Amino acid sequence: MKDKIARWTLLVIAFSAVLALLLITFFIFQQGVPLIFKAGLKNFFSTQWSPTHGKFGISSMIVGSLMVTFGALLIGVPLGLSCAIFLTEFSSKTLQKNLKPVIELLAGIPSVVYGFIGIIVLVPFIREHIGGPGFSVLASSIILGIMILPTIVSISYDSLLVVPGTYRAGSLALGATKWQTVTMVLIPAARSGIITSIILGMGRAVGETMAVIMIAGNALKIPHSILDPVRTITSTIALELSYSVGDHRMALFACGTILFIIIIILNIIATKLTRRT
Amino acid sequence: MAKISIKNLNVFYKNIQALKNINLDVETNEILGIIGPSNSGKSSLLQVINRLSEMNNSKVTGEILLDNESIFSLPINSLRKRVGLIFATPTVLPGSIYKNVTYGPKLHKKFKKSELDELVYFALNTADLWNEVKDRLQESASKLSGGQQQRLCIARILALKPEVIMMDEPCSGLDPISTAKIESTMVSLKDKYTFILVTNNTKQAARVSSRVAFFLSGEMIEIDKTEKMFTNPKDKRTNDYISGRFG
């Protein structure tokens, strides 16, 4: 009898998380999808965003989100991967033990602080030394690149660490240098974990809102260079939701739907790739 | 002339001395068996000759000569190409059988596809594995059985065209048939290569090696022709070990 009660209680609690997810999914789609049909796909994927005048084009935001995310990966992946490789293969145990928690601490810094640092340091620097208004794709990419570092470092690190030691010894004994061993044996062996880390990092970059609002400039147009300001899907939702009504509000939910679909696709890819090995 | 000549070799790991003043010559084209209980420094010796010990903070004094040239002055990857090491557990790399064999040679030199194919045939055939895997060269090497994996490791070393092949208890995890195959491979190859065989199995040393050295707690107790060692050892400890009275 006690077992049964425990079982059912735990079941209900366990499913509450799933239930929350289902409710969120249902709510977002229920609020967002009707508008996409009402406005028509052509309108919805145009570049004209003026929701109070019936123009719901979100292309420039999708492009903005993608550019910022891609830029973040360009910066975060090489940095994060080299960091993970250094920690597992080239550093001493003590350095490893001290450095990894420090990198993971990066994940604990609130995103508003990243945005703040971006405004105070990065934006003026870009404006003065590289050009443009400073609030730009470049600034957001750099900040996001740093923000996704802990995800990339810790997952890549773990997957490199579980590569069997025999691979290292075997490769070195054949006359490979340490670097050849890393590039030709260890990275291929840890491939699925590394790809997962990149995709989860990508998910984080797509979804990040606060830091991006603060430094991206939020201009509603398709950027022509990385020094142009840009607005992402998440920024639009956060900036406009508080005063939106009617179709405008629905349009923001439609943005959420698109964002949701992007994240789901990324997650499915990540799960598929991890399972393959 | 000795192929490998070891002079006054001492090896320390932190506070532990793994090898104590070893003096040992390995002759060209012999199979030198090294026997002794665990912790006697046998594996350390192989790791020092291959300079893999440099990975784990060891301190080495003394000299090791390969063809009269100090191994410590040779570039590390060319040393490891000339002196191959096979481990107790098969160390197949991720990827296909074909890739496992070509991995080593490709590190040192560029090859044409046809040359690689030939090399793969030569290596697998010499290691007595070709007939078993010729139809599935592109399959993952980790699918092979333990004995096949170990022979693949031997093939991988052979593909490098080494001069010395060192084996660290190569048959410790294998069944008698696989063991027999590896032993016969060794014997058939000894005209072309020099072997150092570390083994826990004294009978194996008796079967394949031309000379045997007995190690105990980091010291080399004695070295002699195999027949002499097993019939009439000089040192009582050797006799005790061989007859199974301790170890």
Describe the structure.
The complex is a heterodimer of chains A (277) and B (247). Chain A is an all-alpha fold and 277 residues long. Chain A has one domain (45-275): MetI-like (MetI-like fold), CATH 1.10.3720. Chain A is built from 13 helices and 2 strands; from the N terminus they run ααββααααααααααα. In chain A, strand 1 (49-50) and strand 2 form a beta hairpin. Chain A is globular, with a radius of gyration of 22 Å. By secondary structure, chain B is an alpha/beta fold. In chain B, 38% of the residues lie in helices and 27% in strands. In chain B, strand 9 (211-216) and strand 10 (219-225) form a beta hairpin. The chains are: A mainly alpha (277), B alpha/beta (247). The A-B interface holds A 166-167, 169-177, 180, 184-185, 188-189 and B 50, 52, 55, 76-81, 84-87, 89-95, 103-104, 107-108, 153, 156-157, 160.
Helix and strand layout, with pairings?
The complex is a heterodimer of chains A (277) and B (247).
Chain A: H1 2-39, H2 41-44, E1 49-50, E2 55-56, H3 59-90, H4 93-105, H5 111-129, H6 137-147, H7 149-161, H8 165-173, H9 178-189, H10 191-207, H11 210-215, H12 233-240, H13 246-275
Helix pairs in contact in A: 1-13, 3-6, 3-7, 3-10, 4-7, 5-6, 7-10, 8-9, 10-13, 12-13
Chain B: E1 2-13, E2 16-27, E3 31-35, H1 42-49, E4 58-66, E5 69-70, H2 76-82, E6 83-86, H3 97-108, H4 113-126, H5 130-133, H6 146-159, E7 164-168, H7 176-189, E8 194-198, H8 202-208, E9 211-216, E10 219-225, H9 226-231, H10 236-242
Parallel strand pairs in B: 3-8, 3-9, 6-7, 7-8
Antiparallel strand pairs in B: 1-2, 1-4, 4-5, 9-10
Helix pairs in contact in B: 3-6, 4-6
